[in-house]
Amino acid sequence: MSKIEIYTTPTCPYCHAAKALLSDKGVDYTEITVLDPDLRAAMTERAHGRRTVPQIFIGETHVGGYDDMAALDRQGGLDPLLAD
After folding, report:
1. Over 80: is that where the pLDDT of 1 sits?
2. What domains can you pick out in the chain, each with its CATH number?
3. What SS3 state is found at 51?
4. Phi then psi for 17, rounded to 5 degrees?
5. pLDDT tens digits, residue range 34-82?
6. Residues in Cβ contact with 35 at an 8 Å cutoff, skipping those fewer than 6 apart
């Protein structure tokens, strides 16, 4: 199974939705809270300039935010990515 990392903030509703979707899939993930400016800067660089949370990475693939991950799931592309 691919390593999953999700960059979040505590009060972000999209972050909570993304974590719930991953939990519903039964997968473990590492949550990185970006309240620290250095962590947010690292996330922004890794996410090719995207500054909003959540930013989700599955293995080496930058999935994007919650809307991106939910769309990928609806298209049937999330489960194969999680299984790699």
Report:
1. no
2. 4-83 (3.40.30.10)
3. coil
4. -65, -40
5. 999 999 999 999 999 999 999 999 999 999 999 999 999 999 999 999 9
6. 9, 10
